[in-house]
Write a structure and sequence with these properties.
Helix content is about 35%, strand content about 25%. By secondary structure, the protein is an alpha/beta fold. The chain folds into two domains: about 210 residues, P-loop containing nucleotide triphosphate hydrolases (Rossmann fold), CATH 3.40.50; about 60 residues, no CATH class. The strands form three sheets. A six-stranded mixed beta sheet has the order 6-7-8-3-9-10, sandwiched between helices. Strands 2-1-4-5 form a four-stranded antiparallel beta sheet, covered by helices on one side. It has a four-stranded antiparallel beta sheet with strand order 12-13-11-14. Helix 4 packs antiparallel against helix 5. The longest helix is centred in the middle third of the chain and has 16 residues. The structure holds adenosine-5'-triphosphate (ATP) and magnesium ion. Magnesium ion binds next to helix 1.
């Protein structure tokens, strides 16, 4: 449905997108996961014709998406990373102004406004000024603005940054509901938990490149080990650091070491025998199932929030 082929974008000396190819199918809840500056927003801006690529193409249902494309906005809704609302106006007035850009009939616009407000659970605040809203409520209204034209695809650029847990859940529920109705969702985030919870397809983007894509299972299958081993940092384990490095790659974090054992120490029994031999207390060892976080670490050598 949405096909990105060899997309490259430079801003002066910065290569924000480096030969990106990606396909998003109808009905997917597609997660675009990457750290600050990875190129997520830049990619979204191309999908909707806000930016002009240096090279490469984007097609939507086999039709080329061009820079400045007006038609595409009827089909693809966009929830920008920055909140774009008139603070002095009410929720309803904001929706009316933004909705009028789509040239809907008066009746259709009015119906869609109420539907959108209901979906983001702000119908009872319809006539309140936006400046009186909490951060989470503004985020929700920002979302409502993006669906007034009944889009087929919704681009959401980090819609939960800085929101309280209640609004975050409301946003999740709303997006899941829209997805169930058949709307394709493309969702950028640097929260692994969100990507794991919401998305049925994922792409990991780093330094303007797609480093992996597929379902969560596909991505977890790229790991040799399906378990993560962490060792709590204490004076005792710090003194064992060199010994751990002899059998594993040791990633150092504030309170923990995370170890990726070498090939000859892949079996748990071999590892635990070694831990015992070097005198590492078992209560300082934590074993957990591998997660998307581990996939990211494995592919990029970094944590997403480093
Ligand atoms: N208009 C611009 N002019 C110059 N450089 C830009 C511009 N927009 C983005 N960049 C650069 O392109 C790179 C990718 O930025 P982008 O905003 O797409 O990242 P992002 O993945 O959305 O990051 P974040 O998670 O912080 O929102 C960054 O190095 C950024 O500084
Ligand atoms: Mg961004």
């Amino acid at each position: 449905m949405l096909k990105i082929e060899n997309l490259t974008k430079n801003f002066g000396k910065i290569t924000a997108l480096n030969n990106i190819s990606l396909e998003i199918n109808s009905g997917e809840f597609f997660g675009l996961l990457g750290p600050n500056g990875a190129g997520k927003t830049t990619l979204m801006n191309h999908l909707i014709g806000f930016l002009k690529a240096d090279s490469g193409t984007i097609t939507y249902n086999n039709k080329l998406v061009k820079f400045g494309d007006k038609q595409i906005k009827r089909k693809i809704g966009y929830v920008p990373q920055e909140i774009a609302l008139y603070q002095e106006l009410t929720a309803y007035q904001n929706l009316k102004i933004f909705g009028s850009l789509f040239k809907l009939s008066k009746k259709e616009l009015s119906t869609n406004i109420d539907k959108a407000l209901e979906l983001v659970q702000l119908l009872d605040r319809k006539n309140s000024a936006v400046k009186e809203f909490s951060g989470g409520m503004k985020r929700r209204l920002n979302l409502a603005v993006s669906i007034l034209q009944n889009p087929e695809v919704l681009l959401c650029d980090e819609p939960t940054v800085g929101v309280d847990p209640q609004s975050r859940n409301a946003i999740f529920e709303m997006l899941q509901q829209l997805n169930k109705q058949g709307i394709t969702i493309i969702y950028t985030t640097h929260y692994m938990e969100e990507a794991e919870r919401l998305c049925n397809k994922l792409a990991i983007i780093d330094n303007g490149q797609i480093v992996a894509s597929g379902s969560l299972t596909d991505l977890l299958n790229t790991l040799d080990r399906k378990k993560t081993i962490k060792i709590i940092k204490t004076a005792e384990t710090e003194s064992l650091y060199d010994k751990l490095c002899e059998i594993a790659v040791v990633n150092v974090f504030d309170f923990k070491y995370e170890i990726i054992p070498n090939n000859e120490f892949q079996k748990d029994s071999q590892l635990y025998t070694y831990f015992e031999k070097i005198g590492l207390s078992s209560n300082l060892i934590e074993v957990s199932s591998a997660s998307l976080e581990d996939v990211f670490l494995h592919l990029t050598g970094r944590r997403i929030r480093d």
